[in-house]
Design brief:
transmembrane; disordered C terminus; 15 helices; mainly alpha; At3g27390-like; membrane; about 70% helix; two-stranded antiparallel sheet; 2 domains
């Protein structure tokens, strides 16, 4: 079990299920709560009742026109796609290029040749399905523009867009036999209609070179090295803050159970550690993010190819530049750190001593804005799939460390405590015996009096 990797596979499968459960039960509801609490960007949404019937009619017309026409275009171009794909695959097979470059990939590439007709059929079905949605979207355009004519223009323009896009994919001559009228009053909402064709992605024009990774060596970093460093810092800072009284055991328990009162732990503590990381990077004049070992640096050149860095690396670099531009003094950095830590709990922030705020109101507002941004980006990071599991492991480690220290502290005073307890017990027993003997003497005296 340990050598063939079965146990590791089972363990990582359970970890995947756990991360998926966190996404479904935590990340999803966290995003929906934010959307529910936010107001619409343009204020209240006003429904123009007069435009609704027009939009419905245009939507039905769009479905009646776009769906059959796009289906016909896809069916007519399907044989060309089939022959084009087979020609490319056989050319690669003869020249040992593409998927046939490695010998181990030849069986899979041969399977691709056999299954290519099914891929073409899937593309045709996907085009038919897209025709349904593209047709009904004409209702949205007609409603937004409050115009029946612009809705009809969108129906015709959709056919032209699909025809041009399919020509680009299949390397066919550019252009389309359909006109492409303007269907937006505001030209910024519509892509420029003067361009003759949809621009082809760069991946189609310039295929990647296989030797680039050997000619340009790069420092290998683990995909989630930033998260690992963040939670190591959370564990260390969390223990210090509990001992200093900044964080209570009740807040740790609330964070474990997911209560709102545990926000200081679940968001504030990671935000504080993230602030310390960015502050350290800014003071070191680092071009990227300097981790806690003061050696490892993550920047745009050596960042791992992971979705986490695609989403959060650039915002974190912007935050680091903003912190660097503030030229924080030691007192301001301490004030901002505590503000980042406690700003999620207004009552605790009010009752806590976070130090004197800056005298300038402008400076105070700038620090408040930085604290809110750090809290916001940390909340976004907390929705990443592996975050919840790592956070709970860190909280568990903090609790175990505190329990261990508490046990050692109690053990160190157990000797003196047992002696005092024994002394109290001994004195109580002595007083009890004395009191009992006195009561027996009193009873004998009373008995003698009664006899007399």
């Amino acid at each position: 079990m340990a050598t063939d990797g079965v146990w590791d596979t089972i363990k990582w499968s359970l970890t995947f299920v756990r991360d998926l459960m966190d996404v479904c039960l935590y990340s999803y509801f966290s995003m929906t709560d934010d959307l529910r609490k936010q107001d619409p960007p343009g204020g209240r949404i006003e429904i123009r009742v007069v435009c609704v019937p027009i939009a419905l009619v245009v939507g039905l017309l769009g479905f009646a026109v776009d769906f059959p026409v796009i289906t016909v275009i896809a069916v007519l171009k399907g044989p060309y796609m089939l022959l084009k794909g087979w020609h490319r695959l056989f050319h690669d097979c003869i020249g040992r290029e593409g998927p046939f470059l490695e010998s181990i990939c030849v069986p899979f590439a041969g399977l691709a040749i056999l299954l290519w007709p099914f891929a073409v059929a899937g593309a045709v079905l996907a085009s038919m399905l897209a025709g349904i949605f593209l047709g009904f979207y004409a209702a949205v355009v007609a409603y937004q523009e409050s115009s029946f004519y612009l809705g009809i223009c969108y129906i015709v323009a959709t056919l032209s867009i699909y025809d041009e896009y399919s020509n680009d994919i299949l390397d066919m001559p550019e252009g389309s036999c359909f006109p492409r009228p303007r269907y937006r009053k505001n030209a910024g909402l519509q892509s420029g209609s003067t361009t003759p064709s949809v621009s082809r992605p760069v991946s189609f024009k310039n295929p990647p070179s296989r030797s680039s990774s050997f000619t340009n060596p790069m420092i290998e970093l683990k995909p989630l090295v930033l998260l690992d460093s963040l939670f190591q810092e959370c564990r260390r800072q969390g223990e210090f803050m509990v001992l200093d009284g900044v964080i209570t055991v009740k807040e740790i328990d609330d964070a474990k159970s997911g209560k709102a009162s545990g926000r200081v732990i679940s968001i504030g503590l990671p935000a504080y550690c993230l602030f310390q990381t960015l502050l350290r990077s800014a003071k070191a004049n680092s071009t990227g993010i300097l981790l806690e070992d003061n050696v490892t640096e993550i920047n745009t050149a050596n960042r791992p190819k992971d979705g986490f860095y695609d989403w959060f690396l650039n915002p974190l670099l912007v935050m680091k530049d903003q912190i660097k531009a503030q030229n924080l003094t030691d007192s301001e950095a301490e004030y901002l750190g505590k503000l980042v830590m406690l700003s999620g709990d207004a009552e605790k922030l009010k009752n806590s001593n976070i130090g004197p705020p800056p005298e300038s109101e402008l400076r105070r507002a700038e620090l408040d804005a930085l604290a809110r941004r750090l809290q916001g980006i940390t909340k976004s990071i907390s929705r990443y799939p592996t975050y919840r599991r790592r956070f709970e492991n860190s909280i568990k480690a903090i609790s175990e460390e505190l329990d261990r220290r508490d046990t050692n502290r109690r053990g160190s005073v157990s000797g003196s405590g047992s002696e005092s307890t024994f002394g109290r017990r001994f004195s109580n027993q002595r007083s009890f015996k004395t009191k009992t003997s006195n009561q027996e003497d009193d009873q004998e005296v009373e008995r003698d009096i009664d006899v007399v």
